[in-house]
Amino acid sequence: MDYRYLGNSGLKISEITYGNWLTHGSQVENDMATQCVRAALEAGISTFDTADVYANTKAETVLGEALKGERRESLEIFTKVYWPTGPGGKNDTGLSRKHVMESINGSLQRLQTDYVDLYQAHRYDTETPLEETMQAFADIVRQGKALYIGVSEWTADQIREGVALSRELGFQLISSQPQYSMLWRVIEDEVVPASKELGVSQIVWSPIAQGVLTGKYQPGQKPPEGSRATDEKGGADMIKRFMNDDVLTRVQNLKPVADEAGLTMAQLAVAWVLQNDNVAAALVGASRPEQVHENVKAAGVRLEPELMARIDDVLGDVVERDPARTAENAPRTRVA
């Protein structure tokens, strides 16, 4: 495992980071989830990412149990706040001071820790003054409940505003967590240049495009039974943008490229995002320990420029590059 600095900070994280979004507390039974976490630790993964909204707080509970007994100082634990939790009352969502302060306490209890290494705004809240949110984050950092602050799916302008306020208030906003993969490159034109300028790193989610880049989905065929594309709990909605024959055919044509690199297609996809020097880590989930063992083989891989160019040629115009898609993915109003 290789480790990278997160933003302009002294914090090092594992470049393959274990995420438990669509698995713990919903798709995967607790004992299997624990086996996956153990496999991650054995592979040298020290960084674990979750959120209070995942499985409506259950994912944090499962991760806390799985990490129980580990040396806390050797781990980097990340979580997030924004989306509705609990019964979904009027203040159970967003980035108001009330919701943020209550949410950090709930997350710490479920994760069985005194602090998280990174606390992230899971989306931008258009209905709460940014000053209010940033003041709440500043207080959480001063209380020792979070060491650093990050954001997720914020635009370049929103990141600029957030970093400016964080500096005024005396804490570090060091990370952005966007979707990023060979097929989804919307951060490259605006978010990445702004982040480099501001000392912010990317922790990217869905580097395998919800499983599409593994090549297991064949054009003209039904998705395999039990795959994410058949998951009605949320996975199918997320993956449907890639489930067309043009995309799937081009993905199949990546197989010779992966073979030449000596990688599986999933490893190639993870290695590809890690070639971007603004990416500190690729978030990878797992429903089986074997998937963890396979994914970590992408750590430390260097893809030659000629190979990167071939990937671009194979995928062609199915790649989404429009930076406006970041703003489109954010709620216009606070979700209740």
Automatic annotation (TrEMBL):
Q: Which SUPFAM superfamilies match?
A: NAD(P)-linked oxidoreductase (SSF51430)
* This protein's UniProt keywords: NADP, Oxidoreductase
Q: NADP as a keyword?
A: yes
Q: Which residues form the NADP-dependent oxidoreductase domain?
A: 15-314
Q: Which domain of life is it from?
A: Bacteria
User: Which stretches does the entry tag as region Disordered?
Assistant: 215-234
Q: Which Gene3D superfamilies match?
A: NADP-dependent oxidoreductase domain
Q: Name one Pfam family in it.
A: Aldo_ket_red
GO CC list: cytosol
* GO MF annotations, alphabetized: oxidoreductase activity
- Please report which protein family the annotation says this sequence is part of: Belongs to the shaker potassium channel beta subunit family.
What's the name of the protein? Aldo/keto reductase
Q: Which organism is it from?
A: Knoellia aerolata DSM 18566
